[in-house]
Design a protein that fits this description.
Elements (H helix, E strand, L loop, with lengths): L1 H17 L4 E12 L5 E13 L2 E6 L25 E6 L5 E7 L4 E4 L14 H5 L4 H4 L3 E2 L9 E8 L2 E8 L4 E9 L4 E10 L14 E4 L6
Parallel strand pairs: 6-12
Antiparallel strand pairs: 1-2, 1-11, 2-3, 3-4, 4-5, 5-6, 7-8, 8-9, 9-10, 10-11
Length: about 220
Amino acid sequence: MKTLILPLLLATGLAQAANLPDAAALITYESKLVSAEGVTKQTTFQERWVRSRDHVWSERVVPGNAVQEHHDGDGHNHDLNFATAAKHVFLDGKGKPALQFVRKAQKTVITMGESEYAQFGFDGSWDGSAVLIDRKQLATMQKLKQAAPEAGASWYEQRKGEHYMRVLWSDTRQLPLVVESGTQNGSSWSRLTVTPQALPATLPWTQLAGYNQKSYMDLLD
C-alpha cells in the first residue's frame, strides 16, 4: 500500500498545479493593530506575484524613497533578512513544494530546508503560495448575495465570536481578489488585495542561469 502513496501524492500535486490558470498580480497587504497601550500600528506593503504551472514567484515592491540598508563588508554574507529577496515556491521532482529565496543584486539563490520553512512563514502547502488561501476553507464559509466587481467572482464570509473573515473569490482566476479579516471592535484588521496584471513576457525563475547556489545553512557558517 505504501508503494502507491508516493505516486498518488506526486500525481495530485502536479495535477493541482496544471489545473491552475497562469496569473500575475500586484498584491497589497494592509494591517492595523490597536495595542493595549492605545497605540495604533498600521502596515502597508506590496508584492509583485506570478503563477505559472508549478512555479510561484513573489517579490517585494520597494519604494524609491525607502531607507537603504548597510551591511558590514566583511566578505562573509550573514544577512538572514529575506524580506526584500524574491520568494520562489515550486513543485520539485517528487511533486512536493520547495522554497527558495533569490537575491538579484548578489545573483544568489538560497534554498531552504524543510526545517527552516516555519521561521520564514512558509507552511509547506502549495495552496498557500499558488492560491493564497486554503480553498477548502471556502466550503465552510457562507456565500453572500453581495454583488462582485467582476464576472465569475463571489463574496464569502465566516464569523466566529468577535472575529470575522471575508473573501472575494474568483472561480475564473482561481484566486482571491480580496481577503479581509479582523475583530468586530476594530482592534485588529488585515486586508489582502489582489490586482490582476499582465503576465510578464519572461518568467522570472527562467532568468537564474549563472546564479550562485547556496543552502540556508551556508549563510550560518
